[in-house]
Design a protein that fits this description.
11% strand; nine-stranded parallel beta sheet; 11 helices
Amino acid sequence: MPHAAQPEGESVLPKVSTAQSATAETFAALHRPGDPLLLPNAWDVGSAVAIADAGAKAIATTSAGVAWSLGVPDGADLGPDRAAAVVERIVAAVGVPVSADIESGYGVEPDAVAATVTAVIGAGAVGVNLEDRSGRPDALLFTADEQAERLAAARAAASRLGVRLWINARTDIFLAGVGPEERRLDDALERAERYAAAGADSLFVPGLVDPTALAELAAGPLPIAVMAGAGSPPVAELAAAGVVRISLGSAIVQAAYAVAARAAAELLSAGTYGPVTDTIAYGAMNTALTAGSR
């Protein structure tokens, strides 16, 4: 497996194909202000195939969905090997670019981030999300300088492999409500400046969907990516604010598990089958997943 750990003292970089390099360029070009990349999130091969068949131009993984599908909670240090293994299976099954959610990089130090980036590129990814949550009890986020070092390590790892990796630098200032509310926009702009200098391609601001605030961020040093869902402004409004990327995070996998829960509850209580009346046809899904069909 290209993402497998190497023996101690041995450093072997995965080989990157010309096709993967071309896919990386294609993925980067899909990020356009006013015409954002709509990036649904998958958690396994089946969900990725269904999303690709729906017409998605690219797919991102959701760390929460991947973790849940493997029986562990989100944020429980999934690790680079398990994350890369899922990416590798998805890349092999779909014909569109795949971006990997690598959470905080599965390690504090820049070297750990570089190793994770190397693993997911080796698995076929052409983009990553790298967040600034520290996991430390004393500070929810890495400092801007600390995260800049980690982003620079991610960029250097991609450069060593010759891949134009799109680095979506996630800040959880808004999602976690860090600092005074009146300071958050300025803090995000300051982080964007540091992250841009470190080699990030976009600033991902989950927890913020206000078009006015997004337009202010979009006028800053990095293109802006957002996480949308129920209650968010429609794509047209977010596009008008200048964002370059709209993803759904864990919303699709949560909805899928909600169907499972509702179907089970209705079967067990009422003895009826309402939640499973609208499905992808068995034959269509089976054909899509047939080995060698893609």
